[in-house]
Amino acid sequence: MTTPPNPFENLNHLAEQGDATQRAKSVGHALQAIPELQHWLREIRQAAVQEMREDGLSHADVAAHLGVSRARAQQIAEGRSTGKRAKAAEQEQPEAP
Fold first, then answer.
1. Angle, to 10 degrees, between the axis of helix 34-54 and the axis of helix 59-66?
2. CB contact at 8 A, 38 and 46
3. Is residue 49 exposed (0-12), middle (13-18) or buried (19+ Cβ within 10 Å)?
4. What is the pTM of this model?
5. Of 35, 58, 67, 76, which is the most buried if we count CB atoms within 10 A?
């Protein structure tokens, strides 16, 4: 069996449950909560980047610290998503009349 990636080692107990039915249920609940987890983690990252900006760092400085592009640092600060999430959000929005 594989081990969970960092920083999720504390979820290893899900794989170690002896009862297969309970293990499957617990992992199923965890899988269903992944979108909420991603949202929560994005909020934490956004707040951290905004704090860095309030401390006087430019988007370029933030980018250098995080190992992302300047544009991506700005997107994070503004709470904008990229890739599949952004495309899905665009498709969900009704078109203007």
1. 130
2. no
3. buried
4. 0.73
5. 76
Rounded Cα–Cα distance for residues 24 and 22 (Å)? 5
Q: What angle do CA 57, 37, 46 make, to 5 degrees?
A: 15
Band of pLDDT at residue 97, cut at 50, 70 and 90:
very low
Quick one: tokens of 15? 């794989």
Question: Angle formed by the axes of helices 70-78 and 59-66, to 10°?
Answer: 100
Residue 50's SS3 state is: helix
Predicted local confidence at residue 2, as pLDDT: 74
* DSSP-derived 3-state class of residue 17: coil
For residue 42, give every residue at least 6 positions away whose Cβ sits within 8 Å of its Cβ, in sequence order, or none.
79, 81
